[in-house]
Design goal:
The structure is a single chain. This protein has about 220 residues and is mainly alpha-helical. It contains eleven helices and two strands, in the order ααααββααααααα. The chain has helices spanning about 1-5, 15-30, 30-35, 65-70, 95-105, 115-125, 130-135, 140-150, 155-175, 185-190, 195-210, and strands at about 75-80, 85-90. It has a two-stranded antiparallel ribbon. The radius of gyration is 25 Å and the shape is globular. It comes from Jacana jacana (Wattled jacana).
Length: about 220
């Protein structure tokens, strides 16, 4: 049909109109493109070659992945020849624990790189800053349910990250965690029946008792 049009007398107007329409519609067709290439943000530097949060349109992003994609995690993954590490965009001491510590705890349930590394290492390093105890204690009512979810996760690696995070938190907040332990022990007792976790859980319970004192 287009060949016939080219031979007709309306040839000079029709192609121009067609081109103009395609130009007008091109921004709509290309609108997803900017979404896959957002402006550089702190967390966009976190191993961008390994993860593209916008690639899997069929699966919605988790809360942690969505915050990560928007640049809400103020640190990035640095690849080393032997060991990876985090580089913070600002001093961890200056970062508000609320909501970052809770967000990192939620990220412990991730199963994809670099989310797994960022959440685990970020949680640990944030708890290492001076004054971490007084910043973390008010967040315990929100942290404990998140850690409980990690400990109850079917993925073994997620469970181990949750267990490590629990011990790290206990070392910082001490007896303040005692009132919340009852919410976590059920998940630990279930895994204690598994031989591959028995030793690690036993050591973790000993540390919780050590940090929590006699009451624990």
């Amino acid at each position: 049909g287009s060949n016939v049009l080219r031979m007709s007398s309306g040839i000079q107007i029709k192609p121009k109109t067609t081109v103009q329409k395609s130009k007008t519609s091109s921004p709509l067709l290309c609108s997803p493109e900017p979404a896959s290439k957002p402006q550089p943000k702190p967390s966009d530097k976190l191993n961008p070659k390994t993860i593209d949060p916008f690639a899997a349109h069929s699966r919605p992003l988790s809360a942690f992945a969505a915050i990560y994609a928007k640049g809400g995690i103020p640190c990035r993954l640095m690849h080393g020849s032997v060991k990876h590490r985090l580089q913070w965009e600002c001093l961890p001491e200056t970062v508000p624990f609320d909501p970052l510590l809770v967000t990192l705890a939620e990220g412990l349930r991730e199963t994809k790189h670099p989310y797994t590394f960022v959440s685990k290492e970020g949680f640990k390093e944030l708890l290492m800053v001076e004054g971490a105890a007084e910043k973390a204690i008010p967040l315990l009512p929100r942290l404990v349910p998140v850690l409980k979810a990690a400990l109850a996760h079917s993925d073994d690696e997620v469970f181990l990250r949750g267990l490590d995070a629990l011990v790290q938190l206990s070392a910082v907040v001490g007896p303040s965690l005692n009132d919340h332990l009852k919410h976590l022990l059920t998940s630990l007792s279930r895994r204690l029946m598994d031989k591959k976790f028995r030793e690690k859980i036993t050591v973790a319970l000993q540390k919780l008792e050590q940090y929590g004192g006699k009451v624990s």
